[in-house]
Every structure is written in C-alpha cells, then in structure tokens.
Design a protein that fits this description.
single chain, N-terminal domain of TfIIb, binds ligand MGD, binds molybdenum atom, binds iron/sulfur cluster, Dimethylsulfoxide Reductase, domain 2, Rossmann fold, 4 domains, 6-stranded mixed beta sheet, alpha/beta
C-alpha cells in the first residue's frame, strides 16, 4: 500500500482536495510502487490515479470531471526548453536558460533606459501558486519600481475585489461553503455554478433537494443547468442586474422587510440608497429586465421570508462595465436585511481560478501590494518598503497598467518589454484583432507556459518552459479562504522551472540578490505571510510547515493559531491532520464590525446604466460568452483529454427559436456572427434556454482548436471604471446564415506569425 499524495485540484476556485496515487505502470503486477518520483523520475509509462480527498474541508472527497482527469495531460505537448527568435516571422531556436536570462535582463535594462521602468510589464495569472505571485509582483513593484504587474484576474475577479473593498472596507469573501448547507435561500446571480463550480453546487443542490423549504433563485439570461435546478429562474436581459437588484430593494423597503437595527448600528449611506431604489417600482423593473412583475415579487418574497440568505455570483456580475456597481448592489441587499456575518448568509463571490484569491492576498494586481494593501496608500507602501529593506519611495504610488492597458501600452509604443505567464491572452483578451495587432508591434515579448503550442506563443520572441501542478510546490487559496499545500511529486519535463524561480533569478541578475535570495519555496511563503500579519487576510500562521502538520487551513489565521511541529518531515507527504488548535470562526464580520475607518459597512446608491454597447439596428443582438462543464478556458489542458473533447467536440452558438425563424436558421446550420470588431462562425444550436435577442457562444475555442470560432474576435474592451474589468459578457452583434465553411484553411482565416518546425513541440511521453 502506498500513502496517497494530498494536493489541490488546479482548475477552479472551489478548490477541491485531491489524492494522487501512482497507477500500475504498464506491464507490472506489483501494486507497491516506489512513491518518490522526485528522486526517481517517473518512467515514461507512469500514470497517476486521482481521487477526491475525503479529509479536505471544502470538497469532502468529491471531484468533477476536470479534477478527475487532471493527471492525464501532464506530459503531452510540453514546452521543454527556452526558445528564442529575433522576430515573429522567424523560427524559434533552442537556447540555454543562461542565455534566456541574460537576454531578459538586457531587454529590461534597455526598456528602462529608453522609457523608464513603466515600459516593462508582467501579465500573470490566477493559475500561479501564491509563491509565484509573490515573487512576480515583488520583482516588478520592489525590484523595478513599477506597478505594472497585473493578472488575468483583471478579466475575472477585479469587480468583486473593488465591490468588497468599497462596501465592506476590505476584500475577501466573508462566507464559507458550510453556508451552502445552512441557508434558507440561495440567490445565484450571473453564475452557472452547476457547470463552473460543480462541487460547491453539488453541496447546495443536495441540501436544497433534502429541504423543501429552502429556496434557490437563479438570475441568468440563459436557462443553464444551474437555472434548471432552481425554484425561480429570472431570465433577465443581459446588463439589467442593477435594475433587478434595486427593484427587489424597492419591494423589501415597501414591505418593511429590512433590518433597521443593523442598518442603524452597522452601516452608513442608507438614506441615499433608499432614495435611489425609490425609482425602481416593479412595473418599470419587470419591463426593463424582460421578466414578469410576479416573478420579481416572488424573488423579493423569498428574501423577505428567509432568515438566512446567501448570494452567489461570478462572471455574469463581474464582467461588466458596471461590475463594481453590480457587486455593491448585491451587498446592499445583504446590508439592508442584515444578512451578513451569520451562518447561511452573506455576499459570496465565487472565485474563478484556483488561486485568484491567493493572488489578491499577495498583491497580484496592478493597484495592490501584499496583505490586501494598496499602492495608493502611503502607509501601506512604507510598510512593504520596510519589510523588503527598500529605500523609502521605491514603490510607485501610481497603480500600474491593467491587463488591457498593457495591450494599449504596447500599441502606443509605451511598453517595450512584455512578459506573459500562465495565461493565454490570444484567446482570452477582449477584441482579439486589436490585441493581435498590438502584440505584433511588441519590441520584445516573453511567454512562459507549460504547453506548446498555444495561441499566444505565435506572438512571442522568447518562450520559457514552466513547471506545472504536480511538478512544483506551493500553496493556493480557494473561494472560502482555505489554503491548501500543493507538493511537487513529479519531475518537471525537459528544463521546465517553477515560475517563482524564474522571476527570482531575473531579480538576482538585475542586481537585487538581497531581495530575491530565497532558500526554498517554503521561505517565499514565510516571507509573504509576515506581510499579512495584523491585516484582514492575516495568514501568518499558514506556512508550509503548518499546512503539512494541520492539512488545509482557512484565513484569518494568525501565527498564534497554528503549531507547526518542528519535526515536520520535509517531504510532500503530510502528517495526519490534527484538529485545529483554537476555535476559529469560518466567517468574517461575525461581530458586525467592518474594516472601514468608522467600522461601518457602506451602502452604495447606483442607478442602472445598462450595456456599454447596446444592440442597435446594425448590430441588433446581444452576444454573451461563457463556459462549459468539461472545458477549462483556452483548452491548453482539457483540449488534450479525450474524454473532455468527446464531451464538447465543437464550438456552437445558442439562438432562441424566434430569432432562428427570423434568420431562417435551422439546427446545425452555419451562422456568421459579426461585431464592430470582428467575425466568427458557428453551427447553430436552437434553444429556448436563451432569451430572445441574445445569443451565447463558449469562450473555449481559440484558433488552434477551431477555425474562426473565437468569442473574443467579437467582444469589446470597455471596462468598469472602478475595477477596470472588461465587459466580456456582452457586445452587439449581427447574425447571417452562411453555407458550411468546409474548405477554409487556418492560414486563410488568420494571418499570423510563424509557429512551425519547433523542436519544443515534441511530446515527452
Ligand atoms: N467548467 C469550467 N469551470 C470553470 C472555468 C472553466 O473554464 N470551465 N473557469 C473558472 C473561472 S476562471 C471562472 S471566472 C468561473 C466563471 O464561472 P461563471 O461566471 O459561472 O461562468 P460563465 O459561463 O463565464 O458565466 C456565468 C453566466 O453569466 C451569465 N450572464 C451573462 N450576462 C449576464 C448578465 O448580464 N447578468 C447575469 N445575471 N448573468 C449574465 C451567462 O449566461 C452565464 O451562464 O468558472 C470557473 N470554473
Ligand atoms: N469572451 C470571454 N473571454 C474571457 C472570459 C469570458 O467569460 N468570456 N473569461 C475571462 C476569465 S474570467 C479568465 S480567468 C480568463 C482565462 O483565460 P486564460 O488565463 O488565458 O486561460 P487558460 O487557458 O487558463 O490559460 C492559462 C495558461 O497557463 C498555462 N499554465 C497552467 N499552469 C501553469 C503554471 O503553473 N505556470 C505557467 N507559467 N503556466 C501555466 C496553461 O498551459 C494555459 O496555457 O479568460 C477571460 N476571457
Ligand atoms: S469543482 Fe473545481 S476544484 Fe473541484 S474538481 Fe472540479 S474543477 Fe477541480
Ligand atoms: Mo476567471
């Protein structure tokens, strides 16, 4: 018998615990497999079995298809060596790490000499481990003195961050997954939880089925599998969430269904809010949202009748030009009804990526510093400068470029060095044609990924091979603030390195050996957690040693709360879990004191603005985009898993029967979709599951996986002014029926830089 390796699923923000075991090597009958592959590199035939970790507090042994198959694509199509070329039309040549590092340092120095440190940008990812994030942002903010470190979380979570900070005084979802099993009413808005956070949804669905009095409301323009499970589905028109939320507040206020004591003692700004919601009577709201007055009243009635209300949201709320306002409009309802800081209650943002939460904690956006600090706050800058031993004034007081501002910065010639890691922007950025034109102009682009090719590799000068999940040790934080230790248990293939090591080496070569001298990855985390001490996200007690001793831990968790055993063996195998040493509240704000200067939460009064690009006679329909159960984003992993490809073989567009009739389109007919920015083509899926006037396409198919089926060929980059998160959920489009585009080739479709004949494309298995 072998002891399984305990780790975390590296896909979504539910953060399920996994147990990994070596599968029987081909041709072997011996079940006792030597489990130290770091010392004994796996044979080419080594397979891994993955199952849920029953001891993990978040998932209790459950996994979805993505977690269950995560060990399948570990070796195929890996980028093995650093690869360099002088221009995008040349083939890549293999170079040594030493040459790659020298080149990066030279390019950074020349960019800084030409235009200053702000000409350098690093674009990272919620798929970094916290240690990768911490070193990356330290390199930019401390080492170079520019805040140009942003992550794909800008496209994902930044509205939730801004909303929490503005309304409650600090980021951080105040709820926990146990609330899914303790609520009277789950209010799911802009989230297809069943497909995108399946294990969190399983917990809720089971409880909902067993308790007939528990209500589930889903607000989504599409009848998703999540909506199918609800008691009430409000199929609102895209972009009308604030109308709906204000309309519900209007009714609750009219019925006196408010917690006057909580409003009085724990909040500010209620009168202004009450004045705004006065303008949202049911008939006006129902009309704007495209729902019935009766359904609107039912939704408000469910809130009125519930003691404990849990809101769950994700991209249908965040990815909006009024994303922060939408988040705050949700929080308003909780403040008004006093449903926060209590079991089964609260505004719960479901994090998308496995470690977007860790990124927020580690300073992983262009306006943040570690420990939920802000670059704009002089005291915060001083605290971090002191911790890093930097002279006062080194950290810039200006927020750096957001993800999209990096693209426009390259376009304008203001960015001379662009480093992209663990994200595939040539699929995931809005307005891909503009992104493509911008990256073609980039004087020097470094791309650091696990797989090759990806769509973005075509736009890079230097490719750096990264180690991935299973090959590097670090930590990740899930949506309920639980941190899990993820040990390396395989050798990285070829010359792939952990991201944090790559960033640290560049830091040292730039002359900051003191800033980037880490004995090992545990030392990175130890340094980071010091910076969380006495901050809202205090996790100074969550070190690699305490995680190995205790199993997963939830913040806040000051150092006094955990007792790492000094004898903890320095191996990836955790010792048996011991109970948490001190009582720990799983929820934030249970004392109803908020981290604002006066300790009160803030109401926000917002009128609805609607979509940034509403439909018009030329582009009469609204396109919305999103995800499918099996695929993960740009398919770098899931496109390489047979079972998942069979589950979702092709891209498609969902059209309502009424629109299909008007366009004379039948099931399976090809449709060309145009926006002001680009074009894509899909076979039609005709369904009443989408609101008339709205169409849906999945975001998963970039140019490597299908011809001209990119959602982001169509989307626009107009963003929320507070969070700078682009409105990836809606743009105006026109549809035309076309004949099947059978004979089109990829090169006809897109004129793109060369990506052929690269030794790094070979598979290592
Ligand atoms: N299977 C799978 N799971 C994933 C991922 C994945 O790629 N695949 N990615 C992870 C990541 S990073 C993220 S961010 C999450 C995303 O998780 P979700 O946000 O749940 O997923 P999406 O499909 O992007 O969008 C959710 C819903 O928003 C709806 N919507 C569109 N416009 C509006 C609107 O104006 N108002 C409202 N109320 N709803 C609207 C869409 O119809 C869609 O059903 O999923 C995570 N989990
Ligand atoms: N139209 C539309 N566009 C969207 C969205 C949408 O809903 N609609 N959603 C947005 C959202 S919420 C998100 S989160 C983004 C996601 O978009 P991306 O971040 O572009 O998508 P991924 O496919 O997850 O890309 C991650 C890459 O990191 C690599 N990788 C994995 N692990 C590691 C590692 O440890 N180190 C390194 N260096 N690389 C690694 C993978 O191979 C993969 O190529 O898309 C955004 N774009
Ligand atoms: S729900 Fe999310 S974290 Fe859990 S197994 Fe599925 S993809 Fe992984
Ligand atoms: Mo995301």
């Amino acid at each position: 018998m072998t002891t399984p390796i305990k780790t975390l699923c590296p896909y979504c923000g539910v953060g399920c615990g996994l147990e990994v075991l070596p599968d029987k090597p081909c041709g072997s009958t011996d079940s006792a497999v030597d489990l130290d592959p770091i010392q004994n590199p796996e044979s080419k035939s080594q397979n891994w079995k993955v199952r849920g970790d029953r001891s993990h507090p978040s998932s209790k042994g459950m996994v979805c298809v993505k977690g269950a198959t995560v060990a399948e694509p570990l070796t195929a199509d890996r980028l093995l060596y650093p690869m360099l070329r002088e221009s995008l039309d040349q083939p890549f040549q293999r170079v040594s790490w030493d040459q790659a590092f020298d080149r990066i340092v030279w390019q950074i120095r020349s960019a800084v000499a030409n235009q200053g440190a702000d000409a350098v940008c690093l674009y990272g990812s919620g798929q970094f481990q916290t240690e990768d994030y911490y070193v990356a942002q330290k390199l930019m903010k401390g080492g170079l003195g520019t805040n140009n470190f942003d992550a794909n979380s800008r496209l994902c979570m930044s509205s939730a961050v801004a909303g929490y900070v503005q309304s409650l005084g600090a980021d951080g979802p105040p709820c926990c997954y146990d609330d899914l099993e303790q609520t009277d009413c789950a209010f799911i808005i802009g989230s297809n939880t069943a497909e995108c956070h399946p294990i969190a949804f399983n917990r809720l669905r089971k409880y909902h089925k067993q308790n007939s009095s528990v209500k589930m409301i889903v607000v989504d323009p599409r009848r998703t599998p999540t909506a199918e499970a609800a008691d009430l589905h409000l199929a609102i028109k895209p972009g009308t969430d604030i109308d709906l939320l204000n309309g519900m507040a209007h009714l609750l206020l009219q019925w006196g269904a408010i917690d006057a004591l909580f409003i009085d003692e724990c909040t500010t700004g209620f009168p202004g809010y009450a004045e705004v919601v006065r303008h949202y009577p049911p008939d006006v709201v129902a009309d704007r949202c495209g729902i019935s007055v009766a359904d609107l009243e039912t939704a408000a009635r469910f809130w009125q009748e519930s003691q404990r209300i849990l809101s769950l949201w994700s991209m249908g709320i965040n990815q909006s030009s009024e994303g922060t306002a939408k988040v705050r409009a949700i929080i308003n309802l909780h403040l008004m009804t006093g449903t926060i800081g209590k079991p089964g209650s609260g505004p719960f943002s479901l994090t998308g990526q496995p470690n977007a939460m860790g990124g927020r904690e580690a300073g992983g956006l262009a306006h943040l510093l570690p420990g939920y600090r802000s670059v704009k706050n002089p005291q915060h800058r001083a605290e971090v400068e002191q911790a890093w031993g930097l002279p006062s004034g080194r950290i810039s007081p200006h927020p750096g470029r957001s993800a999209w501002e990096m693209i426009t910065g390259v376009e304008a010639g203001a960015v001379e060095f662009l480093w992209i890691a663990a994200t595939n922007p040539m699929v995931s950025m809005p307005d891909l044609e503009r992104t493509r034109q911008s990256l073609r102009r980039s004087p020097f682009t470094v791309y650091q990924d696990v797989y090759h090719p990806t769509e973005t590799a075509a736009y890079a000068h230097l490719l750096l091979p990264a180690a991935q999940w299973s090959e590097k040790t670090g930590t990740m934080t899930n949506s309920e603030r639980v941190i899990t230790y993820c040990p390396a248990f395989r050798q990285p293939p070829g010359e792939a390195k952990p991201d944090w090591e790559i960033f640290a080496e560049v830091g040292r070569r730039l002359g900051h050996s003191d800033l980037f001298h880490f004995a090992d990855v545990a030392a990175v985390r130890s340094e980071f957690v010091q910076l969380t001490q006495n901050r809202p996200c205090d996790q100074s007690g969550i070190t690699h040693a305490s995680l190995q001793a205790n199993g997963p831990l939830q913040w806040p968790c000051p150092a006094s709360e955990t007792f790492p055993t000094p004898s903890t063996p320095d191996t990836p195998h955790p010792t048996p879990h011991t109970p948490h040493p001190t009582p720990h509240s799983k929820r934030l704000y249970t004392n109803h004191h908020f981290p604002t200067p006066d300790g009160r939460a803030r109401f926000a009064a917002y009128h609805s603005k609607g979509l940034a690009e509403p439909p018009d006679p030329d582009y009469p329909m609204v396109l919305t985009t999103g995800r499918l159960y099996g695929h993960w984003h740009t398919q770098s992993r899931t496109g390489r898993i047979d079972k998942i490809r069979q589950m979702h073989p092709n891209p498609f567009i969902e059209i309502h029967p009424r629109d299909a009739e008007r366009l004379e389109v039948q099931e399976g007919d090809w449709v060309e979709v145009r926006s002001r920015r680009g074009m894509a083509r899909f076979p039609a899926t005709i369904t009443k599951g989408i609101a008339p006037g709205t169409v849906f396409v999945p975001m998963h198919w970039g140019e490597l996986w299908a011809s001209q089926a990119e959602a982001n060929a169509l989307t626009h980059p107009i963003a929320c002014p507070d969070s700078l998160q682009p409105e990836l959920k809606a743009c105006a489009v026109q549809l035309t029926k076309i004949s099947p585009p059978g004979q089109m080739t990829q090169s006809q479709a897109i004129d793109r830089p060369s990506l052929d004949e690269q030794p790094a494309m070979q598979s290592v298995s």
